[in-house]
Amino acid sequence: MDVEARLDRDRTRRIDLPEAIFCHSKTVEQCRAIVTDLLADGDGDAIVATRATPAQYEALLALGPAAFVGPATAGHATLSWRHRRSTGRTVAVVAAGTSDLAVASECRLTLESLGHRVETLTDVGVAGLHRLLDTLPALDDVEVIVAVAGMEGALPTVLAGLVAQPIVAVPTSVGYGTAFEGQTALLSMMTSCAPGIAVVGIDNGYGAACAAHRMLRPLEPGRKDPTT
Description:
The protein has helices at 11-15, 28-39, 54-61, 101-113, 129-135, 155-160, 183-190, 205-216, and strands spanning 20-22, 47-52, 68-69, 77-81, 90-95, 117-121, 144-149, 167-171, 197-199. The chain is an alpha/beta fold.
């Protein structure tokens, strides 16, 4: 039985992050009703829907032609509407492999909806370390790095030994046998010998984007409405 959602319309004012729609386990109609409600508020904040199934994806995409859409890889997609104006800040989303792109795309699109510029680097995992070293100059001007990796999850540790920017590590559920659906990467990142890495949960690209956004917020008293 469908239940009407109780939307947190005050979240942007409180924490400078809009409420997101986590589509997993919701019906198509519930997802459509929530996004329709949020779109009806013409002065509202950015809207982000994560983990949409193919059926949810098609229904939500039909709600607004201005939607920004991430690839529907790994059976789910990220959609967003009404992006914030540019903050002038830049985040790098660095993915170890193509298999990590669904999570990396969720992170990228969330960051873009919040007004940040995103540099995306893919296929730079430690199994081909020369590829990562070759792309390091592209990280010179970014302010925060989100490192997305499965398998043994070594990418954030290697990066943290090479660059000075804050790093948010995202373990993914990609890997063989003892990867244990991301648990090995998660524990590896949490026990990293490189100091200062922040780690989010397995496959949590959205949470990593929000962590990076919080790091980029200016340290000033009070809160300014980002939609104005």
